[in-house]
Each structure stands twice: as C-alpha cells, then as structure tokens.
Amino acid sequence: MATASPLLPLTFLPSKISASTSTPQRTSLPSIDHKLVISGGRPISGHVPISGSKNSALAVLAGTLCCSSGPVALRGVPNLLDTRTMADVLRSIGARVEAEDRDVLVVDTSDVGVTEPCSEKIGRIRAGFFVLGPLVARFGKAEVAMPGGCRIGLRPVDLYIKGLEALGAVAEDEKVCVYGANGKGLVGGSFHLDYPSVGATETFVMAASMADGVSVLTNAAMEPEVADLTKFLIACGACIEGAGTSTLVITGRKKLYGAEFTILPDRIEAGTFMAAAAITRSCISLSPVIPPHVARMTEKLTEAGCKITQIGPSALEVSAVPEVTGGDLQAFNIKTLPYPGFATDLQAQCMALLTTCVGSSIIEESVFENRMHHVEELKKLGADIKVVGNTAFIGGTKPGRIALTGGRVRAADLRGGAALVLAGMAASGITEVENIAQIDRGYERFEEKLLLLGADVKRETEAAVSNLHPVLLA
Ligand code: UD1
C-alpha cells in the first residue's frame, strides 16, 4: 500500500501566479492517462476534511465579474481542474487571479475590458458559460462559446438566454452573442423558469444584480450553491431578497464592490465520502459539512441501516460497521430531483453502494437524460443492473456477500468516476479506474484523502500500471 503524505491546508494555487500566466503549476499535475489502482475489500476509518464546494466556487468566480471596483478575496476555493480552468477563463479577458496565501484566492476584474473569453477554455466546463450574464450586464455585450462539462445529457442553454432576454438582452444567434438593451446594460424584468435550472438561475441573478431596476425570478433553483452565490453578491453590495428560496427579488446596482467571502463546504464531496463509508462497511467522520445539505443522503443511508450522527456543528460520523448494521445493508430506492430533493450528483455513488446491498432497488434519474454511463462499467465489476430509459433496476446481493469483483473500468464523467472508485474499494481484488482526469475535475486530492482513511489506492500512469499489474493486461 502506498503511504499518504499529510494533507496540506486547502489551497487553490501553491504560489503567486500572475494574471498573464496560463495554467498554474502544481507539483503532482494530474493528466489524462493517470489511473487509480485500488486494492478492494479493506475497511476505512478516521476523519476526512471536506473541501470548498466546486459548484459554488465556479459560480462565485463568474460572479467576480460583477465587481467592477476592487478585488475579491475568496477562501475555500478548491484546487481542481475545473476551478483552474475557470480562473483561466477569467484571465483570458484580463482578470487578475492569484493566490495570496495557501487559502486565499484574490480575483480582480476591475480591468476587464474584453467581452469574448477564450472559447477553448469555455468549451471544457459547463460553468464557463456562467460569465455570460455578468459580462452582458456590465459591458452591454458578451460573446461566449457553448460550454463543455460532463456529457450527461443535452444540457441546452435556452433558459439562460430567455432569462437574459427578460432583462432586455437580445441574443443574436441564440447561442453565443448577447447584447444588452440598446447596446448598453440590462434593465430589470420578471422571469419564470420552466425548470429550476441551477446555471440559468445563477446567470439571471448575476445579470439582474447589475440591471437598471427591479427583477423578479420565480421557480428559481434552491440549491445551496445558488444561495452561496447570492450571499457572495450581497457581500459585494447587491440587493437580493429571498436567497435560498424559489422567488428572488433583485434590485439592480450600478456597481458592485470587492469583498471577502468563504465558499461553503462541498455537499457532494461529503456525500461521496458518506457513501465510501457505507460501501466499505466502515465508520468515518467528516467536516466541515452542513448537515441539512446532505439530509437526503443521510435519510437514504439510515434507511439502508447505517448510523449517521452529528458530532459537532459541522461534523458528521457515518457508521456502517457490522455492530451497527447487523452485517448487511438493505436496498433503498432513489429519485433524483432539484434541491431539496435527492442530488443527481450523488446518484452514481449510491448506485455503486446499492450493488452491495441486500435486495433489489430502483434509481430514477429525473434531472439529466443521459446520466447512466457508469452502469456498464459497474457491470464489468459484477454488478447486476438493468436500465430502462432513465431508470436503473439494481439486483443487489445476498446476505453476507458483497458481489463486486475487481476489474478494469473507465470514468466517463466526474461523479460516475467517483462511483467506480467506491465500487473498487468494496470489490475483491484489484480495480483499475482509467481516465482519472474526470475525477480530478471535481474532487480535491481524492486519492490522498482516501489514503488517509486507510484505503489502498494509488495513482499511476499507464506505463507504471503495466509494470505493476501484468495480470490485468492479459
Ligand atoms: C449544475 C451543477 C451540476 C448539477 C446540476 C443539477 C454546476 C457547475 N453544475 O449543473 O453539478 O448536477 O446543477 O443539480 O453548478 N436545462 C435546460 N435548459 C437550460 C438549462 C438547463 O433544459 O437552459 C436542463 C438540463 O439539460 C438538465 C436540467 O435542466 O436536464 C438541470 O440542469 P441545471 O440545473 O441547469 O444544471 P447545471 O447548471 O448544468
């Protein structure tokens, strides 16, 4: 087993990086041909620190474009491929993004003058498109390429555009080029979202914060990350009522100012580690975590037979040891929904867990239409899963057995990749998870944290794996 190096304090960049520098340097840069090699069947134990929220950090980084006066100091921005790409998107239009110390990222968009960010960077992450709203509100024009991100469905941007149109914007080609009212900024307006899209809500809120007049958004997404963005904008001088609810009333301000802000803990990372404890029938603690943000996950794991205990204001203990569960976990059903429903970003991890539970279960994915790529990979590890449309039927296992066996699998997307690692931790034998760049997009030092908990997991290049595991190459 490889040994864990002590965790460094949460940090975005290791040293000062100038505005003109492209991708920041890092001592152990993950690359596309890295794999995780997991020796499964070991329990884990101890404490895992939870990083700042990826999705909140990405929205807040876009939101810094609203602050035309003075720098923003952000704490808790996780050091991830996606956040580094977002920093590069901002740099591509003249923002200064640099790490002040190990935990503070300073972003100054005062000198931004360009309204067409780097298309190649935008094309790598969904959140790249979030810059559209603040740019058009601030400069009266924005030309933003279609975004990238996980391939988990069509992921159109029609609701983003319709929201901006309600604020007076004119979309030139319904895709990328948006002008403000009369070629200037935006004006207050009302908009009802047909679906509570996270990104469309965030785009509307940022744009309306700088529009001339009052705007009202109904059926807004209520995800904690949306509320976090709202709190950030308020800290910068925005006037927004209803943060965290489905109706937001925003009185536009001519100018927003720099401020200090701390990103909330990542509920999806927390939920992933909760699932890790359950699938390995272990007991771990985690913090910081905001318990209501993982309430659905807590309920489902409790239904399975785990014991979840709040051991501090922002700390949980998750126990799935045989003394607590009686030896087996029981199957449960899930339907993914917008918050406060069960998070789609935890669907894959729970599917991995359910393959080890006693009894059959059903997962209905209702948020994205194509988020089952992990199914075929889990089946390679022996899982019994059938998919009909967007519903997965999971066979589960028999009392006293964990049915998974090691094998070679490939991460097709971020959360599906994490699910495969969890499955590998429960499986007998060795599991290789390829295309780890997907996991690096959204989990800060994932394998380092797993090592700290006692998991046997190593990051290896393809060549190194070939040398160490010839059996798997046969
Ligand atoms: C965000 C999160 C993602 C999470 C998702 C749902 C970020 C960077 N990503 O993604 O991790 O899984 O919320 O919690 O924050 N839709 C449209 N038209 C639009 C916009 C969305 O039809 O204009 C549809 C999407 O195709 C999808 C559904 O709405 O089926 C939900 O998408 P949305 O809430 O917008 O998710 P994202 O913001 O992309």
Automatic annotation (TrEMBL):
GO terms for molecular function: UDP-N-acetylglucosamine 1-carboxyvinyltransferase activity. GO terms for cellular component: cytoplasm. InterPro entries: Enolpyruvate_Tfrase_dom, Enolpyruvate_Tfrase_sf, MurA_subfamily, RNA3'P_cycl/enolpyr_Trfase_a/b, UDP_GlcNAc_COvinyl_MurA. Keywords: Cell cycle, Cell division, Cell shape, Cell wall biogenesis/degradation, Cytoplasm, Peptidoglycan synthesis, Transferase. Pathway: Cell wall biogenesis; peptidoglycan biosynthesis. Its EC number is 2.5.1.7. CDD domains: UdpNAET. Its main location: cytoplasm. It catalyses: phosphoenolpyruvate + UDP-N-acetyl-alpha-D-glucosamine = UDP-N-acetyl-3-O-(1-carboxyvinyl)-alpha-D-glucosamine + phosphate. Gene3D superfamilies: Enolpyruvate transferase domain. It is an enzyme of class 2 (transferase). Pfam families: EPSP_synthase (PF00275). Residues 40-450 form the Enolpyruvate transferase domain. The keyword Cell wall biogenesis/degradation applies. It is found in: Cytoplasm. GO terms for biological process: cell division; cell wall organization; regulation of cell shape; UDP-N-acetylgalactosamine biosynthetic process. Belongs to the EPSP synthase family. MurA subfamily. PANTHER family: UDP-N-ACETYLGLUCOSAMINE 1-CARBOXYVINYLTRANSFERASE (PTHR43783:SF1). NCBIfam families: murA, PRK09369.1. This is UDP-N-acetylglucosamine 1-carboxyvinyltransferase. It comes from Dendrobium nobile.
